């Protein structure tokens, strides 16, 4: 059964009720197991698990250290373009928003790469809006060889591509692809994705499968927390992960949990997730899957990141700019996709990490000997 | 009736020429159920047994299901 | 109900026909077990000494036949054996069993994977017997096996579930049914395998050489059912509580 079929077979409200009806007994059972099911995950993200947060955090920290050691992988996002042909109600790059649109040309790109390199990074996340015509395969074919000269690890967060396109990019050095479903509720999804190719819920959902078949090393999934009731949406993230691991068993996985923040559109989230709840979610993911990478971006504040890092996080960004470029020269703020909350320099964040007793990993040798 | 020489599971045997497999099994007193047969290392499908004529010098291997985990 | 390939089974206890003191004992014990899938071997007919026909009584008891390729030492021999078995038993189900080591009868992973791929291509329903190697089991699934049969311990050893940690991984990762085969020596071993989430177990020696095979096979049937019921009911874990150090979530107070 494909994941789309699994999704269609479940009723959103039934799942939500099922989560809310989990009891303390369910939580305790989940906490005492070493192999958790998705039902156990429901218990851990339910309100019933709130009193057990400290216990979850202790176990989550232990499991993370067992699997990853006391290390923290650093990466940096580089926005190549903010051109976009989608209308998404929550995003600063939405086609209707009046912001200056720009795409880095190869000269500007190289200047950015040099600036980022100076900060010490070796893992780069390339981000674009979704503009197939202007920033599509032709652009990537040009950009990749240049980027590979500077960085050993390339992750992309761009428009969903076809399987053979991913295969081509893998040959050019692509390591990982992040593609967030935003929300796993098709009805809510339609309310927020009004125009453009992104309005096709099922095509986006199938992207992870195309990636698995293409043989990419790592796939990143997640939902944009706040578009829908977060517990239900995150249950579907966990289910999606379980499905993908079974299907594409040679692939690595990473999960992100972006919480909606203010942006140009002035968007109001449907559900607000508190800091406590985010910690609960991070620990729940870790207990559910001790091997998955968990990524925390600069959407979250300095205070929060400092304390949450040891609880289950394995990779983080620092010194981020969410506008095209932004590293080689200070550009006006109006172009940002979302507001940064932790604006410390990478060196500063690295020091914090070291003070916590963790080693900063700038370059991960693990993925492949072929690069 | 012309006789030909064949071997069945290593045992030499003389049978009439133009015998087919189904007839051979009757002759050696073997039921058809649970049995498979190869002629010169090639498996002959059960449906072919009435049609397949055995030739002089053929090495026949007869297999059957037996107890064994 | 367990579905493998094109068949559904009420009983998750699969059985083997070897090592019984006599044919009647085997037929009685297997009938008492409730088993719906039974393995048997194939060998050359001894012209001087014809074996009894074991199939008629098993078929009469409604059992599905699973011929194995025991005796094959290479993929080529196993494929040949499977084709013979298909003709002999008129079934495309086959238990792929290749053990070139006659002492411990441990399965050859390389020959098994090669044979599995070939047989799946020829339309067989392949159930490969292998070591509890999670990666090998995924590879077998990829080439089209209908299930995987990782061992609990060496054949006939009755040592139980020695490969527990790896069986857990296999069960977690598998998209096909997992049948724990070999090494199960007592009903408690079978129950443990089922509690872990195995889809079925295959038991032969432990029943065949028991003092009372009929009673033993009934005990196994109960153990398999109990283990499965426990698994479906949701077992409590056995993890120790984490040792509390300084509180990790105190920073959230007032958040």
Question: How would you describe this structure to a colleague?
Answer:
The complex is a heterotrimer of chains A (371), B (69) and C (255). Chain A is 42% helix and 13% strand. Chain A has 371 residues and is of the alpha/beta class. Chain A has a single domain, classed as Alpha-Beta Barrel (TIM Barrel). In chain A, the strands form two sheets. In chain A, strands 1-3-4-5-7-8-9-10 form an eight-stranded parallel β-barrel, surrounded by five helices. Chain A has a two-stranded antiparallel sheet with strand order 2-6. In chain A, helix 3 (24-32) packs across helix 4 and helix 4 runs antiparallel to helix 11. The model of chain A has no long low-confidence stretch (mean pLDDT 91). Chain B has a single domain (3-64), classed as Beta-grasp domain (Ubiquitin-like (UB roll), Roll). Chain B has a five-stranded mixed β-sheet, with no helix packed on it. The longest helix of chain B has 8 residues, at 21-28. Chain C is of the alpha/beta class. Chain C has nine helices and ten strands. In chain C, the strands form three sheets. Chain C has a five-stranded parallel β-sheet with strand order 5-4-3-10-9. A three-stranded parallel β-sheet of chain C has the order 6-7-8. Chain C has a two-stranded antiparallel sheet with strand order 1-2. In chain C, helix 1 packs parallel to helix 9. The mean pLDDT of chain C is 92. Classes of the chains: A alpha/beta (371), B mainly beta (69), C alpha/beta (255). The interface between B and C is medium-sized, with 26 and 39 residues. Chain B: This is Sulfur carrier protein ThiS. Chain B: It comes from Motilimonas pumila. Chain B: InterPro entries: Beta-grasp_dom_sf (IPR012675), Mopterin_synth/thiamin_S_b (IPR016155), Thi_S (IPR010035), ThiS/MoaD-like (IPR003749). Chain B: It holds the Pfam family ThiS.
